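Below is how a single chain appears once it has passed through the pipeline. First comes the sequence as given, then the structure the pipeline wrote out for it. We keep one example in the README because the format questions we get most often are answered faster by looking than by reading.
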Amino acid sequence: MSPLNVLSTRQAAEEKGCSMQAILDAINRGAIDGQRVGREFIVRPNRKYQEWQPALWRQEIGRQGQKHITGRKRR
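Resulting structure:
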C-alpha cells in the first residue's frame, strides 16, 4: 500500500483480480470509495473496499468478449 493510504485503479484491480473498469464501475455505484484526481481515480482501501468483491461472472463475460474481439482477422 502507498504511504498516502490510497490505491490507483490499476493497483486496486490487480489486488482484487478484476478489471480497472470493474473498479471504476464500483466507484460510480458507491460500492467502494474513490475520488477523481485530475484525469485519474484513486481508491481508498478502507473497510468498504476490503469487503467488496467483483462479480466473477461479469469478469468472465468481459474476458470472453475480449477473446472474440482479439480473435478477429484484419482485412
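The helical segments are 9-16, 20-29, 47-51, 56-70.

See the next section for the split statistics.
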